[in-house]
Amino acid sequence: MVRYKRKGLNLVGTQFRSNSPSTTNMSNSGMNMRGKIIFYEEKNFQGRSYECMSDCSDMSSYLNRCHSCRVESGCFMVYDRTNYMGSQYFMRRGEYSDYMSMMGMRDCIRSCRMIPMHRGQFRMKIYERENFGGQSHELMDDCDNIMDRYRMNDCQSCHVMDGHWLMYEQPQFRGKMMYMRPGEYRSFRDMGMSGMRFMSMRRIMDSFN
């Protein structure tokens, strides 16, 4: 469900998203716990605003631009291209009066995903090569460096069995990131992540800091 405000109006619409491998196995993810994020055209929460409580594949239908936002509840992944493409950024509850400067973003937010809060165990299997080939390891907690822990210098595919995860291109949860929902990811290169090496992984939890 999304809401957007313009000239005193509070209009309500519904967003639909297509099925994908990463939308399966969501029964333990607490889908009834809805998040809420408000986007603003200008810095410091000024100008027209757009409230979102679900995924939004293209914000241009509601705002011409976005320079600040406020996460009132839950966690969201935001993208600098439509249809959940481009660089990804994780946002937890808080105020982002000038998020481009605060987070090092080069472009405005163009789409966003709400991240359901997961209540059960976390499990993900990472693979050294595409199509689940090469060395593999199963994770149930955060890993700050796959080279140190597993002597694994690359990760090109994975299978997320339980929970929601963030994968980072550098050790210690640094650098560019990618949001992983439950499902099979046979090739990060085919997902537009060509040339990226994911070296650390972190669970998205209620206590995420």
Give a written overview of the molecule:
It is a single chain. The relative contact order is 0.16. By secondary structure, the protein is mostly beta strands. It has 2 helices and 16 strands. The strands form 4 sheets. The protein has a 6-stranded antiparallel beta sheet. A 4-stranded antiparallel beta sheet has the order 11-10-12-15, with no helix packed on it. Strands 7-6-9 form a 3-stranded antiparallel beta sheet, with no helix packed on it. A hairpin with a 3-residue loop joins strand 13 and strand 14.
Supply database-style keywords.
209 residues, disordered N terminus, Gamma-B Crystallin, domain 1, 2 helices, mainly beta, single chain, 4-stranded antiparallel sheet, eye lens protein, 6-stranded antiparallel sheet, Beta/gamma_crystallin
The overall average pLDDT, rounded, is: 84
Q: Provide the CATH topology of the largest domain.
A: Gamma-B Crystallin, domain 1
Strand content: 35-45%
| Element string (H = helix, E = strand) | EEEEEEEEHEEEHEEEEE
- Which word captures the global form? elongated
Task: Name the CATH homologous superfamily of the largest domain.
Answer: Crystallins
Determine the number of helices (DSSP H or I, runs of at least 4 residues): 2
CATH class of the largest domain: Mainly Beta
Distance between the termini: 27 Å
Radius of gyration: 17 Å
Q: How would you write the strand order of the largest sheet?
A: 2-1-4-3-5-8
Helix content: under 10%
Give unreliable regions as ranges: 1-32
What structural category characterises the helix and strand content?
A: mainly beta
- What is the count of structural domains? 2
| Main sheet makeup | 6 strands, antiparallel
CATH hierarchy: architecture of the largest domain: Sandwich
Total number of strands: 16
